[in-house]
Automatic annotation (TrEMBL):
InterPro entries the record matches: N-reg_PII, N-reg_PII-like_a/b, N-reg_PII/ATP_PRibTrfase_C
Official protein name in the record: Nitrogen regulatory protein P-II
GO MF, one example: enzyme regulator activity
Domain of life: Bacteria
Protein's organism: Rugosibacter aromaticivorans
One Gene Ontology term from the biological process aspect of the record: regulation of nitrogen utilization
Length: 100
């Protein structure tokens, strides 16, 4: 089995922007994503997922480096000033390279 790597871009943000965020990601080249509910505490207080407008989501995208960086730059530019958002990237070894 050959070692192939992609970027895992993880976004933790407010669920209120989910629809726009996912549309942006697809427009910028993401072939797919995973969205899960997220809870935690940060500089903007506790996000307990108690109800829709107060909940957070975690979005994960596996893609090539250029796509991950383009998405991250866009999200920082468009959302950072007005929404709670954390972005991080990591290199991940993938087992089905044809999917990403």
């Amino acid at each position: 089995m050959s070692n192939e790597y992609r970027k895992l871009l993880t976004v933790i943000t407010e669920s209120a922007i989910e629809r726009d965020l996912l549309a942006d990601m697809e427009r910028l080249g993401a072939h797919g994503y995973t969205v899960t509910d997220a809870r935690g505490k940060g500089s903007r207080g506790v996000r307990d997922a108690g109800w829709g407008e107060a909940s957070n989501i975690r979005v994960e995208v596996l893609c090539d480096d250029a796509t991950a960086r383009a998405i991250a730059l866009h999200l920082r530019t468009r959302y950072y000033d007005n929404y709670a958002m954390i972005l991080f990237m990591s290199d991940v070894e993938i087992l089905r390279p044809e999917k990403f």
